[in-house]
Structures are given as structure tokens and as C-alpha cells.
Design goal:
By secondary structure, the chain is α/β, with parallel strands linked by helices. Helices cover 57% and strands 13% of the residues. Bound molecules: adenosine-5'-triphosphate and magnesium ion.
């Protein structure tokens, strides 16, 4: 049974601002993120739910066209806004910036090469998309975050969310190193040049250096938020099945290794006893028995962290009424 309920967690963390949901694909991350966002919106906090997934999950949940349209008010729920970032837009902007930077760098270094093939390779690399996602997330955390009291991120399926966060540590080291070598290169250029004055001026306004410094500052701020136990919570979602439970256990180990605070585990799609008993076929009864075994496993392996249980509904969760039901169950449903 749950040791710290979601409400206990919120009461113990009065400064909480950022939530992230994680878990295996299809377990209920989006509906859990929506339930958390609605909970805070209902309590009067100005709330944003943000998705960086390439699927239009919030648009379909709310039946509203949110995809790639910036921040949109959710109809029928006070205090709630949503944003679904189209990463392709972001990648396009990156591509333009990169082209400009590389072209100016090659010109500066007197290298007569057409940079378009480098840029094609760079932007088709999957790491580029990941980095664009990370960037979109930090933009929301640091910029739009100013306007909201609560921000709930519905992160990409499976390992992506964690990789996104884990990446920040590596990225930080890499950026620090890049900045150092850029500084060295620039100071060498001043030393070697006969036109010191002019070069020193050029160096000061070096766009690549400015980019690196800006990225570094941004990353540092984002990292500070991600490691802040008072402000940030990562909520993991599982269902009573072996693989999703194993995924959550693995994710928890990973985020803890990066000092990212875990804000509890939601157990979704629980078959209520009456539903199993009322089923004239044996299907639900058998599933219920199987579930009992996995609930035992959850209790044993994640027990202290479980903060909410959500029952299996007869239909999928849609619309604000659907989410309102999840909020109610997240706060009060207890499996028997
Ligand atoms: N307890 C439940 N009862 C019935 N349907 C549910 C329940 N939880 C989730 N669903 C439905 O299952 C589907 C997957 O849920 P959801 O989109 O929240 O999962 P997800 O983890 O975000 O998936 P993805 O990994 O694809 O992003 C949705 O259609 C949702 O409405
Ligand atoms: Mg989802």
C-alpha cells in the first residue's frame, strides 16, 4: 500500500513547480501528467502542461488543436494551459543557425568549403533531435516557466525522458570543454595576429563563443532546477505487469544516479475486484489473479514510492471529464 500519497507529497513540497512523467510506452504517462496538471489547476494554480512528444497526445486527449500552435488555453478548465512543441520547427531553426555559424566560421578561418553536407549529416543525426527536445524543454522551464506556478512535462516514451535529463550532465562537461578550447583558439588568434586591435574586437563579438556561453548558462540553470528536491519531481507510471515495473525500477536507479528527485510512482490500469467478479467470462477473473501477483511485486519492489493508484476504466480516457475522473481516483482510489 502507498506510504506517501500524492496529496502528502504536495503538502510536504510547498515549493513544488516542475513535474515530469516517465515510464514504459503506453502505461499512462500522458493521462497521469494531465491528472497532475488538472489537480493543481483545480486548486487555483496557474498551470501549464507541456508535451515534447512527436505524437499529438494532448491534442487528442483534449480534442483541441494544440500541436505546434504555442501555448493554448484548455477550454473548460480554469487556470490550465497546454503546449505541444513541434520539434521539427525547432530543428529547422537550429539548421538555419548552424548554417550561419559554420559559414561564418569557415570564412573566418579562410577555408573554402561548402558546409551544406556537414549540416545535412548533423541535422539527420538522432542526437540532434534529442538535443532539440532538451532545448525546447529548458526553454519552457526557464522562460515560459516564469509565467506559471506549475509546469507538468509529459516527456517522450521510455528511455528518452531519462536520457534527456542524463544528457545534461554530459552536455555540461562537453560545453565547458568547448568553451575552454574556443577561448584558447581565440586568444591564440590574437597573439598570432599582426592586427591585434582588430582581431581582439572580432573575438569579443565571436558569435560561436556567444552561443556556447549562452548554452552553458542555460544548461547550468536547467540542471539546478532538475536537481532541486523542493521544486522538481519525477513521477513514474507503471501498470501491474513485469516489464513496466522493471522499467520503472531501472529509471529510478538512473535518475537517482543523476540526483534527480523522484516524486512517487503511479500504478495505473488496476482491475477493481467488483469488475472482475461481475465478469461472466473468466477473462477478468484470471487477469485479476495475475494482477494480484504483480501488485505483490510492486509492493515489494516499489512499495514506499507508490503515491497513487488508478483503476482500469471501461473506455479510454478522453476530454476534461475523463481527466477529472483520473484526478479523483489518483487522490482516493485504493485497490483491495
Ligand atoms: N486506467 C485506464 N483505463 C482505461 N484506459 C486507459 C487508462 N490509462 C490509460 N488509458 C488509455 O490508454 C492509452 C495510453 O495512455 P497514455 O496516452 O496516457 O499512455 P502514455 O504512457 O502516455 O503512452 P505513450 O508512451 O504512447 O506516450 C490512452 O488511450 C489512454 O486513454
Ligand atoms: Mg504519452
Amino acid at each position: 500500500m502507498s506510504k506517501i500519497t500524492f496529496t502528502d507529497f504536495v503538502e510536504k513540497h510547498p515549493k513544488i513547480k516542475f513535474f515530469f512523467t516517465g515510464g514504459k510506452g503506453g502505461v499512462g504517462k500522458t493521462i497521469s501528467a494531465a491528472a497532475i496538471a488538472h489537480y493543481f489547476a483545480f486548486t487555483g494554480k496557474k498551470t501549464l502542461i507541456a508535451s515534447l512528444n512527436p505524437v499529438h497526445s494532448l491534442s487528442s486527449l483534449y480534442g483541441q488543436d494544440i500541436w505546434g500552435k504555442g501555448t493554448q488555453k484548455i477550454d473548460g478548465v480554469e487556470n490550465l494551459w497546454a503546449v505541444e512543441v513541434d520539434i521539427k520547427d525547432k530543428i529547422g531553426t537550429y539548421r538555419d543557425q548552424l548554417t550561419e555559424r559554420i559559414t561564418s566560421f569557415l570564412k573566418w578561418a579562410d577555408i573554402p568549403v561548402d558546409p551544406s553536407s556537414f549540416i545535412d549529416i548533423a541535422v539527420t543525426n538522432p542526437a540532434f533531435e534529442e538535443s532539440a527536445q532538451f532545448d525546447a524543454m529548458t526553454d519552457i522551464m526557464l522562460e515560459e516557466g516564469e509565467d506559471y506556478e506549475i509546469i507538468v512535462f509529459d516527456c517522450a516514451a521510455v528511455a528518452n525522458a531519462i536520457r534527456l535529463l542524463g544528457l545534461s550532465k554530459i552536455y555540461d562537461l562537453w560545453l565547458a570543454r568547448m568553451i575552454e578550447s574556443r577561448k584558447e583558439a581565440l586568444s591564440l588568434r590574437v597573439k598570432l595576429s599582426f592586427r591585434k586591435q582588430k582581431v581582439a574586437e572580432e573575438v569579443k563579438s565571436d558569435p560561436m563563443m556567444a552561443d556556447l556561453l549562452r548554452q552553458h548558462t542555460k544548461m547550468k540553470k536547467a540542471k539546478a532546477i532538475l536537481n532541486d528536491v523542493e521544486k522538481t519531481a519525477f513521477v513514474f507510471v507503471t501498470i501491474p505487469l513485469a516489464l513496466p515495473i522493471a522499467v520503472v525500477r531501472r529509471f529510478i536507479t538512473m535518475v537517482r544516479a543523476f540526483d534527480i528527485p523522484v516524486g512517487g510512482v503511479f500504478v495505473n490500469r488496476i482491475i477493481p475486484r467488483e469488475a472482475a467478479e461481475q465478469d461472466p467470462t473468466d477473462y477478468m477473473k484470471n487477469s485479476f489473479e495475475q494482477q494480484a501477483r504483480y501488485m505483490g511485486m510492486i509492493d515489494e519492489q516499489l512499495g514506499d514510492l507508490v503515491s497513487a493508484y488508478i483503476p482500469l476504466y471501461p473506455t479510454e480516457v478522453v476530454g476534461i471529464e475523463g481527466v477529472a475522473q483520473v484526478v479523483e481516483d489518483m487522490l482516493s482510489f485504493t485497490p483491495d
